[in-house]
Amino acid sequence: MDRKDFVRARKYIDVSVGQSLRIMRELQELSQNELAGLTGIPQSTISAIENDRVNLGLERAKVLPRALRCHPAVIVFPGWDVAAETAA
């Protein structure tokens, strides 16, 4: 497939940071307790993040993606459209 044949996927829903975390955790078939064990973050805090009651925070934004084996941007910036926004 040539780059000119690329068609951007349609965006169907907006995903919050917490929802992104839950999606990544569930894709890895991990429970909140298992993720807590991998990260040292209490299960109650993981639940609060997933339910958007607690902000992710810098330290957790480093630890959680490492445990989930994904790039931090997948969790921290789930709705960022690189083509529409600049980092300036």
Question: What would you note in describing this structure?
Answer:
- With 88 residues, this protein is mainly alpha-helical.
- The chain has a domain at 17-76: Orthogonal Bundle (434 Repressor (Amino-terminal Domain)).
- It contains 5 helices and no strands.
- Helix 2 (32-39) crosses helix 3 (43-50).
- The chain is elongated and about 45 Å long.
- The model has no long low-confidence stretch (mean pLDDT 87).
In short:
The chain has 88 residues and is an all-alpha fold. Helices cover 49% and strands 0% of the residues.
Summary tags:
434 Repressor (Amino-terminal Domain), elongated, 0% strand, 5 helices, 49% helix, mainly alpha, 88 residues
Instruction: Name the CATH homologous superfamily of the domain at 17-76.
Output: lambda repressor-like DNA-binding domains
N-to-C order of helices and strands? HHHHH
The appropriate CATH architecture of the domain at 17-76 is: Orthogonal Bundle
Low-confidence stretches: none
CA-based shape:
elongated
Structural class: mainly alpha
**What is the CATH class name of the domain at 17-76?**
Mainly Alpha
Number of strands: 0
Number of H- or I-type helical stretches: 5
Q: Give the termini separation.
A: 32 Å
The share of residues in extended strands comes to: under 5%
Helix content: 40-55%
Tell me, rounded to a whole number, the average pLDDT. Answer: 87
Taking the sheet with the most strands, its summary is:
none
The value of Rg in angstroms is 15 Å
CATH topology grouping of the domain at 17-76: 434 Repressor (Amino-terminal Domain)
